[in-house]
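Hi there, hope your week has been kind to you so far. Do you reckon you could talk me through the fold, stretch by stretch? I've dropped the whole record in just underneath, so have a look:
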Amino acid sequence: MQRADLGPCLPELARHFQAAGNDADSDRAIEYAVRAGRRADALLAFEDAVQFFQTALDAIEQQTEPDEAARCRVLLLLGEAQRKSGDFSNALATLGEAARSAGGLGLPDVLANAALAYEQAAWRSGLSPDLPSRRLLEEALREVPEAKLALRARLSGALGRALLYANAETEGRAQVTEAVVMSRQVGDPAVLATNLSYLFGFYWGPASTEDLLHPATEMVAAAEEAGDPELMLNAHGYRLPLSLQLGDMQAVATDLDALMKMDARIRQRTYSITLRGYNIMVALMRGEFAEAERLILEVTALARNLVVHDDQVSMQIFTLRREQGRLAGLRPVVSAFLQQSAAASVWRPGLMLLYFEIGQPEQARKEYEQLVGDFPVMPRDGRWHYSLVYLSEVCAALGDAARAPMLYSMMLPYTGRNIVLGLAIACCGSADRYLGLLCTAMARWPEAKQHFERRWR
């Protein structure tokens, strides 16, 4: 006789036993609520999973003598469901509490998984991903036994990324490199794929593009072997901008197709937003402005109440309006943003371009003179590339032969490449166009001609 599938009945069973009001029935309420949460998570109904795990947590806390270990484990489940639903602020609070509880209770595995989930949520949200991620991961590494090599490898890789965001890039690189070596010893493709993914958070010069294709492709293979759709999605997402830099649009299309299939299986808002961002970028490159506008509206709706992807949406709107000749309407928005944000380095060169678009070159020159002296010390993150591109355009438009060599030397390593913002938020096209513009500002006509005529090899 087959056992009946209680799946659809689990929420009702949980409510029934919770209403009974005694500890014996409460235990069953907790069991059914957790099972309902796991089932909802498997069905990608993350908001429902949050409610079920919260029900289980409430039931534990209402007991005469709450099981603190059970409470700790449910906190981890709840935090993960909150992360997947895009509720990063609550996820960080819940996972932080789970980690503290696990540390106090002597539950190293729970501590480790809470620390890993916390770092992931902090990184994906962009909400100060450095602290306390580093502290939690270091504590977990102290507590997890040496024999648990796979778990320690995962912690080591995540710590490398946490170190990067704690302004310890050199230490972080070494940590990730060591973690990849550990992963190969473990022989677990999911651990290997995860730790390979951390390589792509660091700044790599244009000469490294081809070299990075190998770990990106290895990550795709490892993720597929592991059968983990989230890892597979990330792997294709890391490989795509490398192919785009090299102008291999067939490889870009292959990765986009894989990303769309994985997105349908995962259904997490942050990933869906990123995928639409890729499609917006491709639409802009093709001049399909109506399609880009439609997708931007979709992203805006999806990103509601999320504290992420502001740079993506803002940059793509700016690019679209510029291509449409409608930048003038963004002037008050850009000006207000510059006044409010200390991290808006890319928007100052954007504002200069905007002044040119609306026929105010002297205002553009004023902004340019204020910024260009500080440009060499700007952080080389994804925004740095767009700042470099925009400044090159402004420098050429102003005919600034004195500063053009500085910008030319910064841009020259990108010759033969597309300039890609971050992980393919947007693409500025061939670097040689901007190198040619800078050569014209310096009256270096033969070099300008070579850059303008360059084609992909």
